[in-house]
Amino acid sequence: MEELSAAALPRHPALETEQPETVEDDEAQAFFDYEGGFLDEDSVIVGTVESDEESGMGRHWLIDAARMRLTDRLIYPFEVSGLPKALGDGTWYTVSATETALHLWTL
Question: Domain map of the chain by residue range?
Answer without folding.
Answer: 29-106
